């Protein structure tokens, strides 16, 4: 049994820098045609020049893969810099609330401040898409829900701004998608395949610790239903976020699941298990093409077969663990 996916897209990906970038990039650049690449590097990609330089660096390392680097939203952006970004092909802005996650110390302190609203209005007029890490600073399991008032305000104030609620994790967020025509979401593999038990129900699993936190079985089920029918307002965004063992196995464990090596095998396994393989193409590509208005992507046809893959447990001499967090019954067919 086989399935062929055309132009798979990962609409939320962390590729990091230096040796880590070189080590993780092939897992995404080989099977995926394009990916939205997040700007939360050690030095955030807060200017068009920084974002473009990083985009070019990735493109040079992976010629048949289109990196779509998001610009890190900050209050130093203005009409001229946003216009420059747009002219040079950047079209995504990433909103990190200050201190919400990895490398967000330079994130936005007050999203609804007059300055930010001015920047967002410029972004709306220039046709940017706003990707949002939608979490408050409150109790960890309620953060996405507590962020809803901000989403309501943004969606109502900027009706022509496409807003993406990244890595949707809480079933109570689904109603927002129905309410606002300009609101969309990405869904990760780990939030579809796992719930909080996988992280903390037995021995603690640091490689499954991420922001937003995995939630209840009911949340997982509700998100999975959206994905399995490829709801028109969701696209796949893995949020694959590698951290070296040293920052995972320490007194303080960095947030992020390195899922890139498992993604297409995991998605096929999950969709097959629920008899939904016919909707996988929409979930992993067609929806995103439409929502983000993508064209001119490197053409890729990826065939998977129903056989267990053979994935390593780690790379980089054991420094980067690959968490085998779900059974994998499909593998990418080699040519
Ligand atoms: C991401 C990272 O490490 O960059 N971590 C995570 O837990 N998802 C950042 C993010 O998307 O929140
Ligand atoms: Zn992320």
From TrEMBL:
The modification N6-carboxylysine is found at residue 94. Residues 82-295 form the Amidohydrolase-related domain. Keywords: Hydrolase, Metal-binding, Pyrimidine biosynthesis, Zinc. Zn(2+) 1 binds at residues 12, 14, 94, 239. Its cofactor is Zn(2+). Its EC number is 3.5.2.3. Pathway: Pyrimidine metabolism; UMP biosynthesis via de novo pathway; (S)-dihydroorotate from bicarbonate: step 3/3. It is an enzyme of class 3 (hydrolase). Binds 2 Zn(2+) ions per subunit. Substrate binds at residues 14-16, 40, 133, 243, 255. InterPro entries: Amidohydro-rel, DHOdimr, Dihydroorotase_CS, Metal_Hydrolase. The keyword Zinc applies. The active site is at residue 239. Zn(2+) 2 binds at residues 94, 133, 167. It catalyses: (S)-dihydroorotate + H2O = N-carbamoyl-L-aspartate + H(+). It holds the Pfam family Amidohydro_1. Belongs to the metallo-dependent hydrolases superfamily. DHOase family. Class II DHOase subfamily. Homodimer. Catalyzes the reversible cyclization of carbamoyl aspartate to dihydroorotate. HAMAP family: PyrC_classII (MF_00219). This is Dihydroorotase. It comes from Helicobacter gastrocanis. The lineage of its organism: Bacteria, Pseudomonadati, Campylobacterota, Epsilonproteobacteria, Campylobacterales. The gene is pyrC_2.
